Protein: Type-4 uracil-DNA glycosylase
Amino acid sequence: MEKLLERCMELSDGEEFVFSDGRMDSSIMLIGEAPGENEVKLKRPFVGKAGKNLDEFISMLGIERDDMYITNAVKIRPHKLSLKTGKRINRSPSKAEVDKFRELVLEEIKLITPKIIVTLGNTPLKQLLQRDVRIGDVHGMLMYVEVGDKTYMLFPLYHPASIIYNRDLRQVYIDDLSRLREVIHGLGI
Ligand code: URA
Structure:
């Protein structure tokens, strides 16, 4: 893990970064998009608004957040300056940023060797699969991804922040979670 942290620092190139959280011996690896303001402040993924939603959804899986390994596709906060306030505001990560951190995420997977990888939203899904797949088409479906010499189960979920902006997605999300719960139980987790 030390080596990965060092590599993360190098890739972040002087910017503040947020690495990961949770258990290294976990069977479930959760991959989000990128940290926001609160995450950078507290140096922990998913502690802001999206984190609250995530905690609620994790509790529906019947497991504890601390039992998972949680990380992000991009480890720095993608931001731009607001023309109005001059303050930093979040933006989506660029393809270059997603590509830059890909090798690190793959190394994390090889180190953790989870039984299942759960991606949140489009960014980590595309980063892993490296093709133009859309979360709207594959959410709640069990997929597979090869990393190194292993094939991992991959379960794509919408990003919890998308439920904040689109209340209609809430029930879809809950249905996907109940499918994930079945898969997890099937794996004996
Ligand atoms: N959203 C993410 O995708 N990751 C975080 O760490 C926080 C919000």
About this structure: The domain at 2-186 is CATH 3.40.470.10 (Uracil-DNA Glycosylase, subunit E). The mean pLDDT is 95. The longest helix spans residues 95-112.
